[in-house]
Amino acid sequence: MAQAVTDNRAMNRFELAVGTQTVFANYRRNGQTLVISYVEAPPSLRGTGAAGRLMEGVVATARTEGLKIVPLCSYAALWMRRNRQDDLLA
Questions:
Q1: pLDDT value, residue 1
Q2: Is-contact 73 38, C-beta < 8 A?
Q3: Which residues form the N-acetyltransferase domain (predicted)?
Q4: Considering just the CA atoms, what is the radius of gyration of the chain in Å?
Q5: Euclidean distance between CA atoms 9 and 61, whole angstroms
Q6: What are the average pLDDT values for consecutive 10-residue runs of the chain, which has 90 residues?
Q7: Cα three-residue angle 59-49-14, rounded to 5 degrees
Q8: What is the DSSP annotation of the chain?
Q9: CB-based contact 18:57 (threshold 8 Å)
Q10: pLDDT for the residue numbered 2
């Protein structure tokens, strides 16, 4: 069963647990804007699609909460362009 992306508000990051490791996206909320400053995947998870699954959860959360996204992280920006999520860009 796939793990869900969780919002760890105490650490200001979205997290996706994959086995014993965690992929995460640091963020800050600014009104109705979600600023994604950094996406990190452990080296052993890079290239497995884990960061993409994390971004899918981030986008789903933004849609549910009516937020726009500012992807400062180059990975997040590239993922949003490749996955045609332009309507969520602030």
A1: 41
A2: yes
A3: 6-90
A4: 12
A5: 13
A6: 84 96 97 97 95 96 96 96 93
A7: 40
A8: -PPPPEEETTTTEEEEEETTEEEEEEEEEETTEEEEEEEE--GGGTTTTHHHHHHHHHHHHHHHHT-EEEE-SHHHHHHHHHTT-GGGB-
A9: no
A10: 56
- Whose tokens are 């959360």? That residue is 61
Amino acid at 77: A
Q: For residue 80, what pLDDT is reported?
A: 95
Confidence (pLDDT) at 79 = 96
- Is residue 77 within 8 A of residue 86, CB to CB? The reply is no
Buried-exposed string 17-30: b where 16+ CB fall within 10 A, e elsewhere:
ebeeebbbbbbeee
